[in-house]
Specification:
It is a single chain. The chain is built from 22 helices and 6 strands. With about 450 residues, it is mainly alpha-helical. The strands form 2 sheets. It has a 3-stranded mixed sheet with strand order 1-2-3. Strands 4-5-6 form a 3-stranded mixed sheet.
Length: about 450
């Protein structure tokens, strides 16, 4: 469904709710729209309307819709379900998606849902629950097609025909030993053109990409991108036994989540921030970062206060101060964003940090000289004071150099000590560029004007 169609359906639903006519809404939610479009409609609705719409979704369709809802909203709905409904909707989920949701539900409910499953399904989900959802083990799906190396291609075809359908994104069969150790892979394209009498051992590929269960999800995404993978087997790091496989659709979710994380973290928001979350919940989440920002603002104000006597004598300085801080903040943010991206892509390490720092310092110096000249000319024309023009030019150069150095080194340092650069980097950078900007500008003014 296109964005415009979503808005059109949302308007139709809103008007129907206001008039009390629910028949058309029921029709949209339970047949006229596919499950993924119903999920988008729910996510685009404020909490009160969202609750009413969810109540109009028929029980038989709940599980399918839940698959497409964001994790935060899906968990809200599931927490309000009784155990019987949870068991019913869990049948619609693939094992990896179900494990992700169960991790956020009360332990008592999780046990009841697991107890309702077949032994095979319960074993699969319990295995996935033992891994972090941000690891390869948490991403993988245990629904795989495995074959032995000593059978023929003809027997493999017969085995495949007995399956009603193959798991989604199946591009190859996984060849395992009797103890489930992964021996190789057999692409379906190769299987189709092979001699029926050839054994799997003769035609399987022994050079293939394999992922250890503890591998971070971000590294899995980079590996898929680098190797152009559709799926990849996951093994136990100790026994080398096959545990499951990761498919490209799971990796797309990881890439999307990381992009949302970076974007929201820059503003100090949580990954699962809901556009239409309740007022108090949103207020609490944002209050922390507003408080941190207030502290940094007081630090910058304290620096300004040190030069109150200078400001009292030269009013023009108060007018020009924001320019110095703003130029440093923009320059630093450009570098910070670039370096955070490089870290996320594993492009930055000990071998190239020095080169990157030197490059950014030179860029900062050249931009500083360029724009300080422009600002100095405008300042001289505005205030008819050549000294102030020289002072603001010098402060611009100094602040852009500090911005370049901070934007480069700060995210690397934060990453090294285990702090997310996307979350804390922008706050610290803004403080540095404000303080250095005010200190250099007002300091130079005190030396040369007073």
């Amino acid at each position: 469904m296109s964005e415009q169609n979503t808005l059109n359906h949302l308007q139709t639903v809103t008007e129907s709710l206001e008039s009390g006519e629910t028949m058309q809404i029921r029709y949209l939610l339970n047949g006229a729209l596919p499950a993924q479009d119903v999920a988008r409609l729910l996510e685009s609705s404020p909490p009160k309307e969202r609750k009413l719409l969810w109540e109009l979704v028929e029980a038989k369709n709940e599980g399918e819709v839940l698959q497409y809802l964001s994790e935060d909203i899906g968990i809200q709905f599931m927490k309000n379900m009784d155990t019987e409904r949870l068991i019913a909707v869990s049948e619609h989920f693939e094992s990896d998606d179900l494990a992700d949701l169960l991790q956020h539900l009360p332990e008592k409910i999780v046990k009841e849902v697991l107890a309702s499953m077949s032994i095979q399904d319960r074993t699969r989900v319990e295995g996935l629950l033992s891994y972090s959802e941000d690891s390869a083990g948490g991403l993988m799906n245990t629904d795989t097609i495995t074959i032995r190396p000593n059978i023929t291609v003809d027997i493999a075809f017969r085995y495949l025909r007995r399956h009603a359908s193959l798991p989604d994104m199946t591009d190859s069969l996984l060849v395992v030993s009797r103890s489930d150790r992964l021996l190789g892979t057999l692409p379906l394209t190769k299987l189709l053109v092979s001699d029926l009498n050839a054994t799997i051992r003769d035609i399987m590929e022994t050079e293939f990409t394999v992922i250890v269960a503890e591998t971070p999800a971000s590294e899995v995404a980079q590996l898929f991108e680098k190797m152009d993978l559709v799926s990849a087997p996951v093994i136990d790091s100790n026994t080398k036994k096959l545990l499951g496989r990761i498919t490209i659709d799971d990796v797309v979710d990881v890439i999307r989540d990381e992009a949302e994380h970076s974007m929201l973290s820059m503003a100090g928001l949580d990954d699962d921030e809901d556009t239409f979350s309740p007022i108090m919940k949103t207020t609490k989440r944002r209050a922390v970062w507003l408080g941190i920002n207030l502290i940094t603002a007081f630090i910058a104000s304290y620096v300004i206060g040190l030069f109150q006597a200078t400001l009292d004598q030269v009013v023009a300085l108060a007018i020009l101060m924001p320019i110095v801080a703003s130029m440093g903040g923009i320059a630093g943010s450009q570098v910070l964003t670039l370096v955070i991206r490089g870290i996320a892509l594993n492009q930055i390490g000990a071998t190239n940090t020095r080169w990157l720092l030197n490059r950014e310092l030179i860029v900062g110096l050249l931009n500083g000289l360029l724009w300080s000249t422009v600002i100095a000319i405008l300042t001289a024309l505005w205030f008819d004071n050549i000294k102030i023009a020289y002072i603001i030019a010098g402060a611009i150069v100094i602040n852009l150099l500090f911005a370049a150095a901070t934007g480069t080194l700060l995210p690397i340092l934060l990453k090294r000590i285990g702090i997310d650069p996307a979350l804390a980097g922008s706050v610290i950078l803004t403080t540095v560029t404000d303080v250095v900007g005010f200190l250099s500008f007002l300091g130079l003014a005190t030396i040369f004007l007073i």
